[in-house]
Amino acid sequence: MEFTAQQIADFLQGRVEGDPAATVNTFAKIEEGRPGALSFLANSHYEHYLYETASSVVLVNNDLKLTGDVKATLVRVPNAYESVARLLQLYDAQKPRRTGVHPLACVAASATVAEGAYVGPFAYIGENARVGKGTQIYPHAVVEERAEVGEDCTLYPGVSVYHDCRVGNRVILHSGCVVGADGFGFAPTPQGYSKIPQIGNVVIEDDVEIGANACVDRSTMGSTRIHSGAKIDNLVQIAHNCEVGSHTVMSSQVGVAGSTKIGQWCMFGGQVGITGHAVIGDRVQSGAQAGIAGSIPEGNKTVLGSPAIDYRQFTRASVVYKKLPEMYRELSALRKEFDALKAQVK
């Protein structure tokens, strides 16, 4: 499909700067622009590409001040990054969606697959499982006994939704994601470790996205719960009986130990580790590789380091840390001088 700069501006409630009839039919990064492509500029680090890009139309922020000549037509919007996301969502929605159950799929007689859903070859839908309208179940995905998957979800190849788990509407689970594996529960005995049966489930609410090879463990009792709008990256581990608040985001390799409760709108960088039984309040932000060793119930904090501390304190400590070798040499020299003075006094 082809759109003009004016049509794009109207959709985004922006304004055109240049040729309103300029047309685009694809997307391209601004540094790889080509005629007929739409690009965007949201980071000033890439501004120099704006003056040389071959893209026909570029989305820019309203407050951008040009420092050179631009060949492309500009569409000024309040937030270029958010605007290109809206356009990409519109573009993605135009893709045809498959429907029907493939002959090579295995669907139990007692399972329910709603109208407009798709179940690909070698996928498995277990006894009394339910798949909602418009949901796409890709090849080799598994929805086990009594599990429920809502409407307009996407389960990519190799996803496993274990028995009795519940997945809401518009949820995306990427390849290799496992929902409902047993929590890590073992009781030590003189003979070794005795497995504690994990008889709970996982509940994933609406508009959640979970990345490839991420794991959300089922609870010992009750539910491990991921609230609406949460976004979880690849290779994240969420242990049994945890709760992740609405719109919280986690980057790759975050690990959350059991029975931890995390609030809304939190942000965790890559490889953050969170101890078990912690309570993390709303809008806590944590830099990459932080080790959160206890609760932060009051929320609205930014922490760094391991063990994690307030980012301002961490920044000051980092400055000192860099100077430790020099400080050690100075301390050693002072100690020698002190010892020499003590010897003179004697």
The helix/strand class is alpha/beta
Enumerate how many helices there are, as a single number. 5
Supply the number of structural domains.
2
Global shape: flat
State the fourth-level CATH superfamily of the largest domain: Hexapeptide repeat proteins
Widest sheet: strand order? Answer: 8-11-14-17-20-25-28-31-34-37-39-40
Can you put this structure into words, describing what you see?
The longest helix has 22 residues, at 324-345. The chain is 17% helix and 29% strand. It folds into two domains: 3-93, MurE/MurF, N-terminal domain (Udp-n-acetylmuramoylalanyl-d-glutamate--2,6- Diaminopimelate Ligase, Chain: A, domain 1, 3-Layer(aba) Sandwich), CATH 3.40.1390.10; 100-312, Hexapeptide repeat proteins (UDP N-Acetylglucosamine Acyltransferase, domain 1, 3 Solenoid), CATH 2.160.10. It is flat and about 95 Å long. It has a twelve-stranded mixed β-sheet with strand order 8-11-14-17-20-25-28-31-34-37-39-40. The chain has a ten-stranded parallel β-sheet with strand order 9-12-15-18-21-26-29-32-35-38, with no helix packed on it. Strands 10-13-16-19-24-27-30-33-36 form a nine-stranded parallel β-sheet, with no helix packed on it. With 346 residues, it is α/β, with parallel strands linked by helices.
Name the features.
346 residues; alpha/beta; Udp-n-acetylmuramoylalanyl-d-glutamate--2,6- Diaminopimelate Ligase, Chain: A, domain 1; UDP N-Acetylglucosamine Acyltransferase, domain 1; 2 domains; 12-stranded mixed beta sheet; 29% strand
